Amino acid sequence: MRQQVLLDTGPLVALVNRRDQFHQWAKTEWEQIEPPLLTCEAVITEASFLLRSVYGGQQAVVSLIQRGIVQIPFCLEEEVERVGELLNRYRSVPISLADACMVRMAEQYASSYVLTIDSDFHIYPKEKNQKIPVIIHSDSFVS
User: What band does 143 get if pLDDT is binned at 50, 70 and 90?
Assistant: First the structure.
């Protein structure tokens, strides 16, 4: 079982939305992860927005938090300087607030993996140009 996994928006949406093209992949990956998965409020906000038209979608996200399966240890107010640097550095990619927060979390949790479908995490390095370890679906790569 994998431990200390950082949860990005895509896999969260895919897990909740059975019609998502990555649903089965997300479900399989979640079964291999020891809870809790760690994330930030920006990811929860993005996922909730994307799941607004999925019956029970937003409630499912809240339930994962209530049950402790997903935890939100990240405080943007405490990390705003570094997150701002990341937003500025990668504005041409472009980077979202949620992605910048996830990069910062990857820096904070050095032995973590980011569970994502976003291939941009191969572009964003941690401090000192270290690669961010990712768990990513093979269809997420752009050739």
Answer: very low
CA atoms within 13 Å, Cβ hemisphere of 13: 22
**What tokens were used for 104?**
């910062």
Nearest C-alpha neighbor of 106 from the set 123, 82, 86, 125: 125
Query: Nearest 5 degrees, angle CA 118-CA 63-CA 25?
Result: 35
Q: Which of 126, 102, 125, 104 is nearest to 114 (CA)?
A: 102
Indicate the residue type of 113. Answer: Y
- The secondary structure element, H or E, covering residue 57 is helix 57-66
Which CATH number goes with the domain that contains 54? Answer: 3.40.50.1010
Cα 132–Cα 133–Cα 135 angle in degrees, nearest 5 = 130
The pTM for the full model equals: 0.94
Measure the CA–CA gap between 80 and 116, rounded to whole angstroms: 22
Domain count, the chain: 1
47 membership: H or E segment, kind and range: helix 41-50
Question: What's the DSSP call for residue 132?
Answer: P
